[in-house]
Amino acid sequence: MTHGFDLDARLDARADDDLRRHLEVTETAGDRTRLADDPKGDAPEFGDESVVFAANDYLGLADDGRLQRAAELGARTVGTGAGASRLVTGDTAVHRALERDLADCKGTQRALVFSAGYAANVGTIDALSPDVVFSDELNHASIIDGCRLGADETVVYDHCDAADLRAKMERRAEDGATADERWLVVTDSVFSMDGDVAPLSALCDAAEEYGAWLMVDEAHATGLFGERGGGIVQREGLSDRVEIQMGTLSKALASQGGYVAGDEPLIEYLLNAARSFVFSTGLAPPAAASAREALRVARETDQSDRLWANVETLREGLEARGYEVLGETHILPVLVGDRVDALELDERLRDHAIVAPAIRPPTVPEGTSRIRVAPTATHTDEDLQRCLDAFETAGEEVGLL
Ligand SMILES: Cc1ncc(COP(=O)(O)O)c(C=O)c1O
To answer: Active-site residue 192, yes or no?
Structure first.
């Protein structure tokens, strides 16, 4: 008898299902990099330079000197790590300043930073302990995990479908929901694999009709949309109607960490009850300091103008070459269909020094495999042309065009 774990068998099963994944060393986090020649090797030998259209560093700030200096200053003046949970001795002026700026950016009374967006979602939903969560079917894994941990019941509604949400709330109410039940509606604002946007105003209407709270994950929108980079909630003027605005510091803000923004009681409650906040070391000061500087750059400069110009050039160029590009945002999912074709296109693009990942089932439905192209503000015209040329040649090689 053995009570141990046969992990080789589990890994083999994943491989059989086409779900085995591998780490791959990359030289830098910027929009040009060199990838390790042997992805599974320990000592990387890097190949030729590639242009990366795969990162979420949408404003191209990951190697920006202003952020680097802010991170360095944070490390020098406060420390490389917070040293303890925020509730012990890990609460510093750098954290407070970042939270003030986030609350200001989001138009809320207060904000609270977590060590990751993942921790913010899981910790918040778990702490609220809702009786029912109504969750968009394409919500991020960290929302799903928060529901698994904290919700008594999770009702999944059709993607971006406020009418289906309303119908499911109505059914739940008719099935005998008691007046003291606590309901939470939760959605991403920009969906990372589809590049589309949740109908937030209609979701607010539905939530308000049933007195439920609405939580919006702005991971892919913070720093990019709205007058102050506050996200889609701000762009749509819904700051007063969305109880919980959540997001990450790790995408357009090119740092690490997550946040929740909302009213004073929400934040005060979370810092008492969100276990991923209470029992986790405070965000590293360099990460907090660089995120704060990124927020300033995003709000006070025209960094995003270049991103939107690049998005337009790529979308038009891909469509002109016969590709169908989904969505309506800075994320450009190029529809391929068959999973094998998508993988082959990914590999051919790499041969042409373009890194843009194939997204396959189970991440997306069967028959809708795609290449996720994510331009950044720092891609040059030459980079974009190289990407379009690569799509043209690789698409012909794979037989898609
Ligand atoms: C929509 C969404 N929410 C939350 C997260 C988690 O954020 P983080 O990477 O900071 O843990 C991510 C990214 O991975 C995301 O795409």
So the answer is: yes
Residues 283 and 319 in one domain: no
Do 22 and 69 lie in one domain? The reply is: no
Q: For residue 120, report the distance from its CA to the centre of ligand 1, in Å.
A: 9
Q: Using DSSP, state whether 54 is helix, strand or coil.
A: coil
Residues 256 and 207 in one domain: yes
pTM: 0.97
Ligand 1 — pocket residues by CB below 6 A?
116-118, 121, 140, 142, 188, 192, 217, 219-220, 248, 250, 258
Q: Give the CA angle between residues 370, 376, 377 to the nearest 5°.
A: 155
Q: How far is the CA of 293 from the centre of ligand 1 (A)?
A: 20
Backbone angles phi, psi at 266, to 5 degrees: -60, -50
For residue 267, the domain's CATH number is 3.40.640.10
What is the band of 205 on the pLDDT scale with cuts at 50, 70, 90?
very high
Q: How confident is the model at residue 83 (pLDDT cuts 50, 70, 90)?
A: very high
- Give the number of the atom of ligand 1 that is nearest the alpha carbon of residue 248: 10
The question of whether 251 is a catalytic residue gets the answer yes
* 208-231 pLDDT tens trace: 999 999 999 999 999 999 988 999
Determine which one of 95, 140, 220, 379 is catalytic: 220
